Amino acid sequence: GCDLSVHNGVVNFAMLKTATDFAILRAGYGRYASQKDDRFETNYQGCEANGIPKGAYWYSYAMSEDEARQEAQACLECVKGKRFEYPIYFDIEEAKQFALGKAKVSAIIKAFCDVMENAGYWVGVYTGASNFSTHVTDEIKNRYAVWVAHRGVNAPSFNGPYGMWQYTDKGMLNGVQGNVDLN
DSSP string covering 68-116, please? Predict the structure, then answer.
């Protein structure tokens, strides 16, 4: 599968359908619905029209549980009325977030995921393999779907179950101009 955002430009979904089994779409980022990814609606409709199973992700800048809940509310506004075959992932990557420590990072993840689950969505967490190991509690890793990023290796260095592995950000697929993340 692949993950798509505004950074991938215009996608030919009829061609992509022959090249991928699923797509994870960036719904947006931050605390406001106005931060919806500029290509989310188009990417969602392209997947729907071409029978490509999809999930979504929300890129986080949250530094507290309250900010994570605000991000979840923004995400809910953007995905309202849409259906997904894959989880909606909380994408946590910022060094300043990890500097808060394992307990705080895990509380932030839980705050976002609780709001999304209470709204009826299947949720998960996306981050790098080393971040999962050092900054996310086992409770979180065992509770939610795990999408682990570890590029350029034969297998992720992650001790635990995961549902998806992002193995490159330099993939090539029919229908996408330039590099695309592959999972």
Answer: HHHHHHHHHHHHTT---SSPEEEE---HHHHTT-HHHHHHHHHHHHHHH
* Identity at 180, one-letter amino acid code: V
Q: Which residues of 133-171 are buried (b: 16+ CB within 10 A; e: fewer)?
A: eebbeeebbebbbbbbbbbeeeebebeeebebbbbeeeb
Three-class SS of residue 8? helix
Report CA dihedral (40, 45, 50, 51) to the nearest 10 degrees.
80
Nearest to 78 by CA among 58, 53, 64: 58
What confidence tens digit (pLDDT) does each residue in 63-112 have?
999 999 999 999 999 999 999 999 999 999 999 999 999 999 999 999 99
The two structure tokens encoding residue 99: 């500097």
Residue whose pair of structure tokens reads 């086992």 in the numeric block: 138
Model-wide pTM > 0.90: yes
